[in-house]
């Protein structure tokens, strides 16, 4: 399991990751979806220990990525957006080098490399220099190094960059084959790839997690009613009359004029997710109204993505921060001045305002705080003191009467 807890990462004035938290478990392909600059790559770099967060923690299978880096990194295979390749090595030499880095037992290295070459379809390229490979095959070599050591967590940052359509399909099939025994994390800003492969989607925008869930859950959360768009060769009054007996219709909006085909466009909205297309079609047929077009308008993953990612960038407003600090400092000074005035007024009356146990307490803690906040005027303190003195005198008189 991977647990990311409240991580923050700032570059100068830009907050790339803003208090991000989530948990991932084995058996699913997770898609990090977001526009360029959303913080996807930064989050992945933090999760792999490549860079450190300003604050927050990342735990992989119970190992903190900063406190137990070797144990945590042993669980992770990572393909960054730009694969970390040595161009002067052959594919086989490079994979043997990575095996040494990941401490694969020597007697298992050859068998391990053969399997990885087969999985990534690089068997015919083992003895080729990496610098002579196409961009797509370099991407495959990067994927192969991520699989060395059979890590439990596979993190892939834009893994299909540079691949042709056939290679993309092969890569997607391969990612699906990994999910039963691994946590697979795919980062992309290409909606179709995430939709085709991922079981669970996390949408990021400006360093924040703005939506998460399966594609079905995300769409179901937005499509709480059915919306039908219909083009009809009939007058508005005829359209409304034909739809009268259909249940669940909430509203009918009809255009003001006919289109080029002489049809009116009507938008029918229901009060639930009940599918009324069949009922609507039968109603128009019964009323002998020709239907030019009937389509269902649904909020798709693309709509959700566009809505969720249109936010203000995460730049830090230093002017606002300075103003808030200045106001806080001024308020602190006012508190000090108010408390000082309270104490001086009390001492002038021979009383102690700050000891709750004192019988001569002028102001309660609550009243002192009000005075500090400006809710109790300093000029009124004399009145408070007078009231306290009057109370003390009355108390003394009562005691004398009891003694007599």
From TrEMBL:
Acidic residues biased stretches: 357-368, 376-404
Region Disordered, residue ranges: 326-404
Molecular function terms from GO: ATP binding; ATP hydrolysis activity
Keywords: ATP-binding, Nucleotide-binding, Transport
Domain ABC transporter: residue ranges: 2-231
Basic and acidic residues: compositionally biased ranges: 326-346
Keyword hit for 4Fe-4S: no
UniProt-listed InterPro entries: AAA+_ATPase, ABC_transporter-like_ATP-bd, P-loop_NTPase
Domain of life, source organism: Bacteria
Keyword S-adenosyl-L-methionine: no
CDD domains registered for this protein in UniProt: ABC_DR_subfamily_A
Classification via Pfam families: ABC_tran (PF00005)
Family membership noted in the UniProt record: Belongs to the ABC transporter superfamily.
Name of the protein in question: ABC transporter
